[in-house]
Amino acid sequence: MTLRVKNKLVMGLTGGIASGKSTALAYFAQNGADTLSADELVRELYQAPAVQKQLTEWFGTYDAAQVAARVFTDEAARKKLEDFLHPLVHDLAVKRIHASQKPFVVFEVPLLFEAGWDKLTDMNVLVVGDPQTLDARLASRGISREEYERRLSAQMPDSEKARRANVLFFNGGPKEDLALKVQRLCQALGYIYGFK
Q: What is the pTM of this model?
């Protein structure tokens, strides 16, 4: 059960809610990487009849927002959902990574460390947002501070993620700063691994 593929560099990318990890993923794509998002794979899986049937059986609905509202207030329900979805997401990711024509693939996974998937990649990057701008970033996404705290309680602290990550991006300035960090990392990895 690995995400590594011979002759490819597979990077895990993660960060807390509203940290800027999706923005970083877009910058990796701009710098030539093939990119995958676990959240997008989950959205894809929610369209599968077998998944819809199972979710409806457990939660009375397969509507993503309603299921999320339920699991973030019920730890047993969240665990059940993760145990069901994680293997499906993993298998779909493996297929996409193998099918990629590029030597560098970045896989954005919000629960990268929590799920233990950091051990399945070649290296991992953590994006940490600025706590001073958190409320504004949450407001722009329509997420309340209460909802944020509830979701955060289900995740590993950033301090532990930082200890486990190979690269840490502090995303506290303008987007151009994050873009430059991603560009420089891609250039360095290109020289190290022989892809440009």
A: 0.91
